[in-house]
Amino acid sequence: MPRLRKPELLEKVLAAIRLCGWQFIVLTPGHPFRIRIYRDSEAYTFRVYIWNLTHGGGPARPPDEYRIQITGITRFEREPYGKTLILGWWAEADVFAGFDYRKHSGPLGASPSIQIRESFLREAYERGFSPCDKGNREVAIAFKPSLFCEYVRSLEDLHDAGRVRTDLDALRAVAENPLVVNDSDLENVTAARRKAIASVLRNLRDTSFQDRVLTSYSHRCAMCGLQMDLVEAAHIVPVRAPNSTDETCNGLALCALHHKAYDRSVLDVSDTYRVVVSNREKDRLTSIGHDGGLDSFVEALRPLILLPPAIGDRPRIEYLRRSREIRRWVP
User: Fold this and answer.
1) N or C: fewer beta carbons within 10 Å in the chain?
2) Mind listing the pLDDT tens digit for each residue in 166-215?
3) 3-state SS string over 3-15?
4) CA angle 103-198-149, nearest 5°?
5) DSSP 146
């Protein structure tokens, strides 16, 4: 595949930030890029060095090795009061690889490069995230764009997992199967890194659920058919409810408007998959003069929700019923 130029690599970073639902300001548009990201009360400023990941370095190198060939600089500069990222972009699978700045903070030698094995890049492509033990307590992190802001947020703690074997083992278990790892399984993790690893675990679960639900509905809102990259994976039984699940059949693909309307019990999905509007909510909105656009809102709804082709992915009736109880749905 053709190598991306620096402006194109910057666009990959910005697209990943958007995908994560964060906002950004590009402080320095030239390489190394300086970016500030923020969401709610959280904000981070970081300097990012990024190159294409390319294969090998001659017959003397391992056949499954990829590397970033560092050009244009003689050393990495630390971002004052912020974070410094060293990234590679693997265009074959749209995967980032992140390297620990602290392990590469000295003067760079002739023709410098930093390596990662293809198996870790492939694991990130398939599962979303992969820690690569490079030896000497250095850990590289391969990850999908949907984990970009989580990587920035937990940067130091993730790379520090290589300091303690139990921490790295826990991070590997999270990467290999996040659906079977629980917070209680992280009790042996060093306290300083437990929060970061638990946060990655939650993000991997959320990303897996979102990917599966949106794919099953072809990225269309089940209630109106909208795509436009404005569709979200909504839990039928809310995620914070007891015994909620990340099964695809506990999900609905909903645009942002209908997701909020569903969570607020303005809308419901019946046992026969009909889209139902709450008459109580319609009367309430009318009584307080907040019914502007209500008619067009109702007219845009499908009579029946879109259903995934696979029967096992379709909303489970028992989950729809539990959701009504939890949301206190009134027709």
Assistant:
1) N
2) 888 888 888 888 777 777 778 888 887 888 888 888 888 777 788 889 99
3) CCCHHHHHHHHHH
4) 60
5) G
